[in-house]
């Protein structure tokens, strides 16, 4: 190893570094993804679902679209995680027993308190009218968009 490089390397205790790094990473995940935002009660996956549906024209008064299509669009463009996690989040947005004002209008079996929803290939959805109020000024650059994993 060249001398100048070796002089810049600081020896560290690997156990301390792993502990600190893991804790820092875990906290960033909890704060940025797992906890709902206090402003609207939504997690990033919920916002991505709503925006994807809005952007794709899946709005009130338009035909319902297959849930699998919505999930695929969200996963492909905005949220590189499990399709099951995205579908579960979308289903929750459409369950009237899960929230006072569902943001997604479901069609098909979106589950009950006791039973899970049908597979995404059997259900359809579109944005509920109330979701349009949340998104009404999205085209007016009210939100600072940043590139995601797909650029």
Outline:
The protein is mostly helical. Helix content is about 45%, strand content about 5%. The protein has a domain of about 90 residues: Topoisomerase II, domain 5 (Alpha-Beta Complex).
Descriptors:
3-stranded antiparallel beta sheet; Topoisomerase II, domain 5; mainly alpha; 151 residues
Q: Order of helices and strands, N to C?
A: HHHEHHEEH
CATH superfamily of one domain: Topoisomerase II, domain 5
Biggest sheet, spatial arrangement of strands: 1-3-2
How would a crystallographer describe the biggest sheet? 3 strands, antiparallel
Strand content: 5-15%
Return the average pLDDT rounded to an integer: 90
User: Residue share in helices?
Assistant: 40-55%
> How many β-strands, per DSSP?
3
Low-confidence stretches: none
Report the CATH architecture of one domain: Alpha-Beta Complex
The CATH topology of one domain: Topoisomerase II, domain 5
Distance between the termini: 37 Å
Helix count, per DSSP?
Answer: 6
Structural class: mainly alpha
**Coarse morphology:** elongated
